[in-house]
Amino acid sequence: MAVIGVGRFIQQRQDFEDQIARSYQVEMAARVQIAEGEDSAATRAVVSDQVERREQLQDDISSGTRDTAILVAAGLIAGLTGALLLFSGLIASLRRPLEDLVDASARLAGGDLSTRVEVGGLSETAALGRAFNEMADQLEKDAAEREQLDRLKDEFVLTASHELRSPLTSVQGFAELLMLEKERLGPKQVETVEIILDNCRHLGRLLNDLLDLARSDAGRLALRREPTELAPLIDDVVRTMRAQTDAANQALTEQIEPNLPPVYVEPGRIRQILVNLITNAHEYSPERASVQVSARVVGTDVEISVSDDGPGIPEPQLEHIFDRFVRGDAGLTQRVGGTGLGLAISKSLVELHGGTIRAESAVGVGSTFSIRLPVSPSEAAVAPSPATAEPS
Ligand SMILES: Nc1ncnc2c1ncn2[C@@H]1O[C@H](COP(=O)(O)OP(=O)(O)OP(=O)(O)O)[C@@H](O)[C@H]1O
Ligand SMILES: [Mg+2]
C-alpha cells in the first residue's frame, strides 16, 4: 500500500509539472502575440486563463498530495502492524519450546529421569529438544545400571557378612572355651588366646555393622518398635559405659529432664546408637575429659545429646563425619582402632526411626552429637508389633 502510494505520488508530481510547463508555454505564446501587437481580448483571456489554470493545478496537486500522504501513512501503519504481529508470532514459537526445555531440565535435575520434551519448533530448537531427550535416555539408563550394581553390592555384602559370621562365632567360642581352661595354659598361650578373642570381637562388630548397613540400604532392616521409656535406657547405657570412662579418669554424667514422654522405638537400636556416641566421646577425648549425656523434650521430639570437652572435629571433616568409612585425624583417632562405620550406622538407624542426627563441634572446645526422635503419643500407645520393615 505504501509503495502504491509512493508511486502514485511520483506520477501526480510528474503530471503536475507537465501541465504547469504546458500552461507556461501557452501563456508565453499569448504574451509573445501581445508583444508583437496582436493585443486582442482573446489573447489576454488566454493569459489570464493560464494563470487561473495554474492556480487550479496548484490546488489539485495539494489535495492529491494530501490523499497520497494519507495512503502512504496507512500503508506504513498496516505494514508495521503486520511486521509486529509476525515478529511476536516468531518469538512465541521460539519461546514455547525453550520454556518447555527449561521446565523439563528442572524436573530432570529434581530426579525425574522419565522427563522428556516434545521435539518441535525451529530446527535449532528441535535439535536442542532431541539432544535433551537423548541425554535423559542416557541418564535413565545409567541410573538403572547403578541401581542394579547397588543391589548386587548389597546382596554381596549381606551374604559375605552373614557367611563370615558363622566361622567367626565358632573361632570365638573355642577361644572362650580355652580361656575357661586358663590355669592349664602358659602365660604366652593365655596372651595369644586373649589376642584371638579381641580380634574376634572386633571382627564380629565390623560384620554386624556391615550387615546392618547393607540391610538398611536394601530396605530390609526390621525394627521391633515398642513404647519405650528413655530415662531407664539411658541410665543403663551410662552404667555399662562407666567402667571404660572410669578407667580413663573421665567424668561421665547424665542430665535427664523429668517426665520424658515414651517414644515408639526399638530399644536395642537406641542403645546401639548411644553406645556408639558415648564410645566415640570416650575414645577420642583425653584422660580426665568430661562426657555428658542429656535428654529433653524439644517441640514434638525427644532430643538426646552426648557432649564432650575433647579435641573437637575440624570443620572440613565435620561435613563428612556421617559418611561410611570416614575417620578424622583429630584427638586420639589414629591411636584408636575403628572402621569409621559407627556414625554412619547411627545415622541410618535414627532415620529409620523417623528421627534426625546432627553434630556440632569446635576444635579445642569439644563435640556434641544430638539425636531427635519423634514423640508420637498415638503410636507410643500402640501395642508392640512383631517386626516392621521400614524404608532405608
Ligand atoms: N566425640 C568425638 N570427638 C572427636 N572426634 C570424633 C568424635 N566422634 C567421632 N569422631 C571422629 O569421627 C570419626 C568417625 O566416627 P565413627 O564412630 O563413625 O567411626 P570410628 O569411631 O572411627 O569407627 P567405628 O566404626 O569403630 O565406630 C572418628 O574416626 C573420629 O575421627
Ligand atoms: Mg566410633
Count of alpha and pi helical runs: 9
Stretches with pLDDT under 50, minimum 5 residues: 379-392
Report on the biggest sheet.
5 strands, mixed
Count every beta strand, where a strand is a DSSP E run of 2 or more residues.
9
Major beta sheet, strand line-up:
3-5-6-8-7
Beta-strand residue fraction: 5-15%
Helix content: 55-70%
Query: What global shape is seen?
Result: rod-shaped
Q: Return the string of H and E elements.
A: HHHHEEHEEHEEHHEEHE
| Helix-and-strand structural type | alpha+beta
Termini separation comes to 74 Å
User: Residue-averaged pLDDT, rounded?
Assistant: 88
- From the alpha-carbon coordinates, what is the Rg to the nearest angstrom? 47 Å
Ions, cofactors and other bound molecules: adenosine-5'-triphosphate, magnesium ion
Characterization of this structure:
The chain is built from 9 helices and 9 strands. By secondary structure, the chain is α+β, with helices and mostly antiparallel strands. It has a 5-stranded mixed sheet. Strands 1-9 form a two-stranded antiparallel ribbon. The longest helix is centred in the first third of the chain and has 69 residues. The site of magnesium ion has 5 residues, from α6. Magnesium ion binds next to α6.
SSE blueprint:
Elements: H1 2-35, H2 41-109, H3 123-180, H4 187-217, E1 222-223, E2 226-228, H5 230-247, E3 251-256, E4 263-265, H6 267-284, E5 290-298, E6 301-308, H7 315-318, H8 342-352, E7 356-362, E8 366-374, H9 377-380, E9 388-389
Parallel strand pairs: 3-5
Antiparallel strand pairs: 1-9, 2-4, 5-6, 6-8, 7-8
Helix pairs in contact: 1-2, 2-3, 3-4, 4-8, 5-6, 6-8
